[in-house]
Amino acid sequence: MFSGFVAVISMIPPLAILPILFIVFGLGEASKIVLIFIGITPVLIRDMSQRTLELPREMTVKAETLGASTMTIALRVALPQVLPRLIQSVRLSLGPAWLFLIAAEAIASDLGLGYRIFLVRRYLAMDVILTYVLWITLLAFLIDWALKALSRKAFPWAEASL
Predict the structure, then answer these.
(1) Distance of CA 150 to CAs 93, 137, 144, Å?
(2) What values do phi and psi take at 122, rounded to 5?
(3) Distance CA 9, CA 39 (A)
(4) 10 Å Cβ neighbour count for 109?
(5) What pLDDT sits at residue 115?
(6) Which residues have C-beta within 8 Å of that of residue 125, sequence separation ≥ 6?
(7) Measuring CA to CA, which residue among 57, 59, 60, 49 is closest to residue 85?
(8) How does pLDDT run along the chain (162 residues), one tens digit per residue?
(9) What is the pTM of this model?
(10) Percentage helix, strand, coil, to 5, in the chain?
């Protein structure tokens, strides 16, 4: 129902609306969170929509034959099939999320790793910049590892298909 709207929203470059977010939400953390949300959510919605459409039709037909309602089909048939793929999509969206966060911190912030990188670049302190880049890489790796472990623990049956 909302596919056209989400498709249009996903085409808006999130960094282009960053000044609007700073005006509406201020220079604090809320604008950064909203930027990340706006940046990755439409892509996740489109991906999950496509993955839901790819579910085998016979699963839905079997559930309907057994008398399942639309809500039951959504919760007991589609959701268990889509959740592992959602975690996979979130893992793939970590790169853009970090990009949006660092860009927001670089433009208007007085704390955070992105702010510190752009602060130190004035002095060409490559050793400090590389240290911050290593911290970001370590944090990204740990988040990715945690999401992968969560997926394995919560959906062991799905690992073979991903």
Answers:
(1) 16, 20, 10
(2) -60, -30
(3) 10
(4) 22
(5) 79
(6) none
(7) 49
(8) 778 888 888 888 888 888 898 899 988 888 888 999 999 999 899 888 888 888 889 988 999 999 989 899 989 988 888 999 999 999 999 999 998 888 888 887 777 777 788 878 777 878 888 888 899 899 999 999 999 999 999 988 877 655
(9) 0.78
(10) 85, 0, 15
Containing structural domain, residue 151: 3-158
The sign one gets for the Cα dihedral 114, 116, 121, 124 is: negative
Total domains in the chain come to: 1
Hey, what are 149's tokens? 């472990």
Q: How far apart are CA 16 and CA 12, in angstroms?
A: 8
What tokens appear for 2 in the block? 């909302």
In this structure, what CATH number is given to the domain that contains residue 20?
Answer: 1.10.3720.10
DSSP string, 68-117: --HHHIIIIIIHHHHHHHHHHHHHHHHHHHHHHHHHHHHHS-SSSHHHHH
